[in-house]
Amino acid sequence: MWISKISLNNFRNYENEIIELNKNLNIFYGENAQGKTNIIESIFLCSMGKSFRAKKDMEMIELGKENATIEILYEKTDRCGKIKIDLSNKKNIFLNGIKLKKLSELLGNINVVIFTPDDIHILKGGPQNRRRFLDIMISQLKPNYMYNLNLYLKTIEQRNNYLRQIREQNKSEELLDIWDEKLIEYAEKICEYRKEFIKKIQEKIIKIHKEITDNREELKIAYHTDCEDKETYRKLLKERRKLDIIKGYTTKGIHRDDFTISINDKDLGTYGSQGQHRTAILSLRMAELDIIFDEIGEYPILLLDDFMSELDEKRRKHLLEKIENIQVIITCTDKIKLENKNILIYNVKDGKVIKENQEV
Q1: 78-118 tens-digit pLDDT
Q2: 3 state SS for the chain
């Protein structure tokens, strides 16, 4: 799987730019705030239909413009394709010229794994960061997952609204049974997906982490959920109904799920050093690469947004050894020289991308 061309029109600080890529390493270097991460963002947007950093689509339109267009040409082992996204007061997504009705129709056409300096917050931040990691990975491989997750979140919103109506308007509690059954149905499906993928991560990450740490550390990952099965969750919703009414929101469910990581049987969040967090993130992303390969039979595109600077020489070497035959897009402030690699190097300056050379 690889991207051959990116076309950007009024996207962020790119007025009209065409970028041609090779199948292997593509390095975009330049000073900060020149537009390097915007290239990574455009690829992620065409993969997931959403930005990994913008809260609103309008933020991605060039200042003073009313609309933006992103177009990507890609190739997989069994087909070629074109994804086009138009951004204005609404977002329209096209696959091979056909307008998509649902976001789930986009997912899985371009698979990506992204490294950013903010990845450290996946493990050091709140549970919502770890759920988002799972949501992004699973939805690329199982588009129906995102469909069920959106239904669950919509039902949570409706249930929460009704909880407040019970509290403030003395509405009947019995109608909550309708929302509860819907939540239970969606939660069970989502939970099964998550448990399945946590198991796959665990199978991959033990070996990967041992290799990175020269067998000094054993990493384990554990999933925590309130929704192990339908009856357990149904009982929990009943038990917490009075509390939910008082608070005005649903206090238990898969929207509260989490996973934890331990190293040598010690909780990483409590006892882990900064270096151990970095290594655990690297292991987690490398496991993600392998899982996607196992699922679809080819590696995803690897996006490294200023991430090489976050790694010491040993971790960087381990990463580079693992990315043979993978298209990699790297952004960095200084030009990186890598031996025996097929590389395209681009200088990014003020919204312009200049191809410098190709090395073999």
Answers
A1: 889 999 999 998 999 999 999 999 888 898 899 999 988 88
A2: CEEEEEEEEEECCEEEEEEECCCCEEEEECCCCCCHHHHHHHHHHHHHCCCCCCCCHHHHECCCCCCEEEEEEEECCCCEEEEEEEECCCEEEEECCEECCCHHHCCCCCCEEEECHHHHHHHHCCHHHHHHHHHHHHHHHCHHHHHHHHHHHHHHHHHHHHHHHHHHHCCCHHHHHHHHHHHHHHHHHHHHHHHHHHHHHHHHHHHHHHHHCCCCCCEEEEEECCCCCHHHHHHHHHHCHHHHHHHCCCCCCHHHCEEEEEECCEEHHHHCCHHHHHHHHHHHHHHHHHHHHHHHCCCCEEEEECCHHHCCHHHHHHHHHHCCCCCEEEEECCCCCCCCCCEEEEEEECCEEEEEEEEC
